[in-house]
Amino acid sequence: DVSRVAIALHRHRATTGRWPETLAAMVPSCLAAVPEDPFTGEPLRYAVRNDTPFVWSVGPDLRDDGLAHAWPGQSLYNMIGRPAERGAAYPPPAADIQLWPPLMDAVSP
Question: What residues are paired with 43 via a beta bridge?
Fold first, then answer.
């Protein structure tokens, strides 16, 4: 889903010259539907900041912090149950999970 959103964002920008106002603005031209946040079942969150589109999940605490407290260095794959070393599960963060752009060196919006 995240890859489809990223491709749709770039397709929209290539066509219109700007990022969309909302993810829903790309339905049905670039996306069949806005993907759901796996934690809430609601649409993924989206914002444009400094001409960069950001897509995020509220994470397991179910609170939208607007990426103010993004959990750096982890992926949604890790959050949904990838076992940590020695068989323990990763602790759930009290933060949003940035899905796009990918976190590199804890870049924050």
Answer: 36
